Each structure stands twice: as structure tokens, then as C-alpha cells.
Amino acid sequence: MTSGAIADSIVNLCGAIGLAVAMLTFYRRDPRSPLTRRLLLALGVIAILFLDRGLAWWTGSRLLDRLSVIPAALIPLGALIVTEGILRRHAPRAVKIAALAGGILLGLGGLFGLQRFVMPYAITLALFQLLAFATCALLLATRDRSSLMASENRSIGRMAVGALVVIPFILTDFRTLFPDIPVRLGALGALLTVTVMLIAGGGAETRRHGLAMMALRLISSGLLGLAAAFMAPDVDAAQVVRFVAVAIAGVLTIGLMTDALRALFESQEPGVLNSVAASPAQTREQLIAELARHPIFESAQRFRESELASYDPPLLRDFLSARRVLRRSDAPWALSPIDPAAERMVSLMTANSASHVIVLAHDPLDLIVLAVPVTAADPATETALALVRRLLALTPEAK
């Protein structure tokens, strides 16, 4: 087996695994959505194509190679089905008939021997796919924007850009047309597309973080592949491209799997905000007891003003009048280190090995002192503490 065939197989198998993970993620997000079902159908066809090709090229099976033309010919139909779901409108009847008939004819034709006419068949299949994508792009571009929500219009714009980006990757799969391509990159383009689609489903800040993480993965994996290429005895430009493509495809696939597993584990282990939302507690004391079951609040202790007598409550009251949550790492909180109020607050936190103080009430003082584990001290936890403080402050005391 040549190095080119090995690289083609690995990239396509990574694409199949990555798309399967993306399908599970989309299904978990919204299993009952009509668009989800359409998207799963289209991604399933593409995943089968990549799996079939990867196994065919790895094993040298001519039967699997011939079978791969069926999902390849059905990709335009899948793209049209997704486009209809996005627009919530039917495509013109002629377009649907052309996509269905073309997929059946090219799929069966390739299966029963049209591949003997290698160049004409490859050109026909490539033109059929490109024409289908162009038609879908035209339907999206000429959509009735007023019938869709602003978020849907933004998503369509992102998908249009993604479609333009992925077309060059798709063309590399037609080695008959481009015999000098070192490695087929269609699966890599699909991995990039589904990664961006999953990132686009979050809020603005989440999208920025996701894109930054994706850029880091691409750059680091590209450099890793470049470095690995020089371990081979005979290194040329084509070999470098193969190593880089394999490294990027592998890292993107691993990234999709780890992101999906992280989301699954987080959903199975409710966070502190989920615990509060699901709590049947009616009073502040009951809610604090409920929170104590969560790892972040295991060390939490409540101090009322009568229990703070040794820390000068009037002084603390003035100090905390404009503060809601204090972190030990921020000491002395814009005051002098020898300021009496700062000294007393540091003393309180030190005596209880605390990292945070949550102010429930100022007059009389009502504080929660807790130690957040270093492994849990992140911006999300800080936000959760601030929200928990607000909820506790609004929860009535027992009568």
C-alpha cells in the first residue's frame, strides 16, 4: 500500500468517526427537531461514504470502492433535504426530481460498471455535486428573510461561507481529475464544517472561545504533522502534506469526541445552578442545606452578625456595603493591606481556610464563607457563585 493510500484511508476514517460523533451531538441537543432528522440523514450518508472509502482503500477491496459511489451520488439529495429544512420551504419540484434521479442513476451506474469510463464518470459526478451545492446556495441566497428569525438568517450566512470553504476540499476527492493531489481532503473539509456548525450553536462568547480552541487545534496539529514528516526517510512536499493532513484530521476527530464526552458528563452531573433550580427548598436555610450537597459548597459555613462579634461587625458592614462576593486572591480589595476592615476580612477567611465570602445581607450581616477547590476555580464558577448569592438573597428566611 502506498503512503498516499494510507493517508487517504486515515483521513477518511477520521472523517467517518468525527461525523458520527457530530450526529450524536446534534441528536442529544434536539432529538425531536425536524431539522435535526434531516441533518442526521445528510451527515449519515457522508459518514457512510467516508467509512466505505477508508476501508476500501485500506484493504484494497474493489467491491467496497464500487459501493462508495452510492453514498457519493446521494450527497446532493442530502444537501437539498437539509436546505429545505433550514428554509422551512419545499424546493422546486424539478430540483428535487433532478437530485433524486441523478443520485440513483449515478449511484447505480457506478455500481454496475460506468466507472470503466473513469474520466467521463468522474467529471459527471463532480459536476452533479457542484451543481447541487450551487443550487442549494442559490435557494439560501434568494430566501425570504422576513419569514425566518434573525438567528436563522445569521446561521444561513455562516453555512453559505462554510459551503464555499469546503468546495476545494471536495474537489480533491476526484483524483481522476487531479492526479497530483497528495491526499484526498474531502473528509477533512467535512470535519472542519461540522466543527464550525457545532461551535455556531452557542452564544457569542462561546463561539469566540470555540473558534479560538479550533484555531489552536489546527495550528498545533499542523505543526505536529510537519515535525512528524521529517521522521520519514524520504521527505518531499507531498509527504509533508500527507502528514499534516493526517495530524489535523486526527486532532479534529479527537476534539469532537472529547467535546461530546465533556458535554455528556456535565449533563449527567448537574452543576450548582442546576441544583438550585431543581431544589424544592422554600427558605434560605433549606436552600443552603441543599447547596451543601454540591462539591463547591461542601465547606460552606454561615455566619450571622452575632457570630461575627470578634471581627467588628459595624466595620465589616461598611466595608461590605458595596460588595457581594469577595475572593481571597483579590485581597486587600483596593484597600491598604493594613486597613482594619481588610485585616479583619482576611482574618475571617484565614481562620476558616476560605477562598470566597458571599454576602447575603448587610444589615444585619449574613455571610457564607467557603473554600472553592483550585480545580473548580474558573470564570464559570465565579459566575455561578454570583448568581447563587442573588438567589439566596432573594430567598426568604424561615418564619
UniProtKB/TrEMBL annotation:
The keyword Acyltransferase does not apply. It comes from the Bacteria. Keywords: Membrane, Transmembrane, Transmembrane helix. This is Uncharacterized protein. The chain crosses the membrane at residues 6-27, 39-58, 70-87, 94-112, 118-140, 160-178, 184-204, 211-231, 237-257. The keyword NAD does not apply. Coiled coil: none annotated. It comes from Bradyrhizobium septentrionale.
